[in-house]
Amino acid sequence: MLGLSIGLGGLAVAPMAAVAERAGLPVVLYAAGVLSVAGAAIMSRVPKPPAVVKPEGVLAAIATAE
Fold this sequence. Notes:
Blueprint: H1 2-23, H2 25-44, H3 55-65
Helix pairs in contact: 1-2
């Protein structure tokens, strides 16, 4: 997950630099802030993963099934 975040951040640098050259740094900083809030809002709607079964629960289930 960390590698993906670093890679995507690296990909975002070039377009943001191009926009900063044309429109100015405050515009890019504002856009980065808006994108981070939008990303957090989108990720809050992603469903949580299902509960993980503990290994001892699996072994106990196998032992009782036999």
